[in-house]
Structures are given as C-alpha cells and as structure tokens.
C-alpha cells in the first residue's frame, strides 16, 4: 500500500498582529512615567513666589542659580556647574559677545541673602549682559 501524504495548504494571513507592539509600548510608557519625575536636572532650591506675568519666549535664556550658601551655578543647557564670580564674568561675557540679545535669568533660593543675588547681578553687569530677569514660582491659590 502506498502512503499518501496529505498536504494542507495554509492560507497566508495578510493582517499584522499588533498586540505585541502595544504591549511593548505600554511597558515603555510605564517606565518613562516612573523615571521622568526622578530626573532632577537642576540645582535644588526653593524659589520665592509672587504674582508676576510670565515673560515672552525669546529662546533659551542663560540661567544663573544662587544657593542658600551663596554658591553660583551656571546652566548653559547641559548640567549646571558650580562657578565662582570671576569665571562667571568671563564665561557669560564670551557668550554675550556671540549673542548680544542674550537674556539671563537669576534664580535664588528664597532663603538666600539678598547680598548673594545682588553679587550675581553685578557679575552679570560686568559681563555686559543687558537683560537680567529674576525667576520665581507663581502664587498658589
């Protein structure tokens, strides 16, 4: 007796199964939702509050942060770095020479002495910065 092989032909599916892609997307979403609040990209300070209007968006401003102890941090877009007054003047004046309409913001902890904020503004004036703003948080209602 001869053996016959029964051959079944499978129909090809023309649909894509997207369920695994959705699963991967949801896992990535959860990972990003958990890790995003943990990323602290600045110097930890408590800004003062006030009822001021937000400034118009004129590009990315340069940020100088003053801590409670009077240390200066310069944030040029990467990681804020600890900097002394003379280096602050030299660095900001070099940046201001390339961009005369540079806007610089000074943020200080609410417990910072006014003297430290004033020193930062004097250093920025010596660097030739024409526009200096102060950073604060809006009042909570």
UniProtKB/TrEMBL annotation:
It is found in: Cell inner membrane; Cell membrane. It is a single-pass membrane protein. The chain crosses the membrane at residues 21-39. InterPro entries: ExbD, Tol-Pal_TolR. The keyword Chloroplast does not apply. The keyword Cell inner membrane applies. One of its GO terms (cellular component) is plasma membrane. GO terms for molecular function: transmembrane transporter activity. Keywords: Cell cycle, Cell division, Cell inner membrane, Cell membrane, Membrane, Transmembrane, Transmembrane helix. It comes from the Bacteria. GO terms for biological process: cell division; protein transport. Part of the Tol-Pal system, which plays a role in outer membrane invagination during cell division and is important for maintaining outer membrane integrity. Belongs to the ExbD/TolR family. The Tol-Pal system is composed of five core proteins: the inner membrane proteins TolA, TolQ and TolR, the periplasmic protein TolB and the outer membrane protein Pal. They form a network linking the inner and outer membranes and the peptidoglycan layer. NCBIfam families: tolR. This is Tol-Pal system protein TolR. It comes from Wenzhouxiangella marina.
């Amino acid at each position: 007796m001869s053996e016959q092989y029964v051959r079944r032909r499978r129909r090809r599916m023309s649909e894509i199964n997207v369920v695994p892609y959705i699963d991967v997307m949801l896992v990535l979403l959860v990972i990003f939702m958990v890790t995003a609040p943990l990323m602290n990209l600045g110097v930890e300070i408590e800004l003062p509050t006030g009822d001021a209007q937000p400034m118009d968006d004129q590009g990315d401003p340069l940020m100088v942060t003053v801590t409670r102890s009077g240390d200066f941090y310069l944030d040029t877009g990467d990681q804020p770095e600890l900097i002394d007054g003379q280096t602050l003047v030299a660095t900001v004046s070099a940046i201001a020479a390339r961009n005369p309409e540079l806007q610089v913001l000074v943020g200080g902890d609410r417990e910072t002495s006014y003297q430290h904020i004033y020193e930062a503004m004097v250093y920025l004036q010596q660097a030739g910065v024409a526009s200096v703003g102060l950073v604060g948080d809006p009042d909570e209602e």
